[in-house]
Design a protein that fits this description.
With 193 residues, this protein is mainly alpha-helical. The protein contains five helices and six strands; from the N terminus they run H-E-E-E-E-H-H-E-H-H-E. It comes from Marivirga salinarum.
Length: 193
Amino acid sequence: MRNKLKILLLLCLFIAAKGLAQSDQVKLHNGVGGVQIGVFSTQLFQERVISSNTLIKYECGVNFQFRSIESIDNLAFFLIHEIGFTIRKYSNLLNKGVSLKDKGNNSGNFIGVNIFNDIRKISFSPKYDVGHWSFINVLGEVGFRRMLSEKLAIELSAAAGFSKQLYKPLFDDIALIADLEFNFIFLRKSHSN
């Protein structure tokens, strides 16, 4: 089992290294080998190209790589899109744990829509850092991911009558995290370019 995990890890590192070898890959100031750690990573994410040559993610645990982002607005748009995509998947899963007769505020769709709307309020700010533009990790991401995975996993196996007790703290935590300002450092080519 351990050997299989080692092989999988090496494969992930190879894929990430291959991506970094791209000619249009910019240097990331904060990250190991240009790979950022933990930007809203969940087991529901899949490796895929969001938009042609604009944003590529490599799913290797919680490793992500960004490249060729034209503006901070584009980055915000793509992240919001991805978060919404994941929340909609969570919403579909939640529906399986909610009574079919309950179409009110306890329904999975209601939860998913509200989480998505709260996340859309998050602000993105460019910052300059010692002659380099780069990305930094999203503040509060780890807590956000853990909160979603733990509470939603409980909901999937919980009785419908117990769901209301889970939803209230879920919304309370989302509200706190939505108040955080997610600070990114915009990245650009080296000064020679």
